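so im writing up the methods section and need the ABC transporter domain-containing protein record in one place, dumping it here so i stop losing it
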Amino acid sequence: MVKEFPLPGGAGDRRWFRAVDDVSLTVARGESLGLVGESGSGKSTLARMVLGLTRPSAGRISFDGADLAGLDRAGTRRLRSRSQLIYQNPYGSLDPRLSIHDIVAEPLHGFRIGERASRRDRVRALLDQVGLDPGIDQRRPAELSGGQRQRVAIARALAPAPDLLVCDEPVSALDVSIQAQILDLLTGLRDELGVGLLFISHDLAVIRQVADRVGVMRAGRLVELGTADDVFERPRHAYTRTLLDAIPGRGFAGTRTTAQKGPR
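--- predicted struct ---
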């Protein structure tokens, strides 16, 4: 895949900025693919193309064998119910005017899933699934902690029963102790539901805890792709080695989290 953006006042070859440069990857059902790189490396642009929110300048994106570019309006709608985004900032991604129930139920209304009673039951079941007391459903986001808000965001993403979750820096705005709980929750949901995870982060230690395979991006290019063990223990590319060497303490290299349900 390639994604280029026009540059104001550019001329010749400098008229375009190539944010994603000839990247190829796949995410299987039930797999966690971690995508790591510094800011501006093209991770989030790639995620937007995977979700169908941005069209590639060149290349092809397929979901379950269907080419996204060839989908009609109904097909695009179905695709968007099957691939959901978990945003970086739980303080900005939830509408403060809505109750927790209404926030989690948004995709159910948007994709016309169920009726009023079944939606209410679905919301309460989702809150329980992400480790929250269903009794908070009438509260507002301001009444919850950052970790609780991110659990609500995860519940909302799960509402239409997607096959793929795109997690764009989902723990970077949280305290370290809460990060571990959210990472455990996501890996547990992957194992329980068989959902695929495209997990984007600048933090290699976070990626190590959740990813089966790891891709390393630099300046729009995928410079390394392999199993988590290979990338962390036997990196091939000099840039990957530089990223690993910059992490204080390398004891995490052989460890991964064990999924468990976090406290309510």
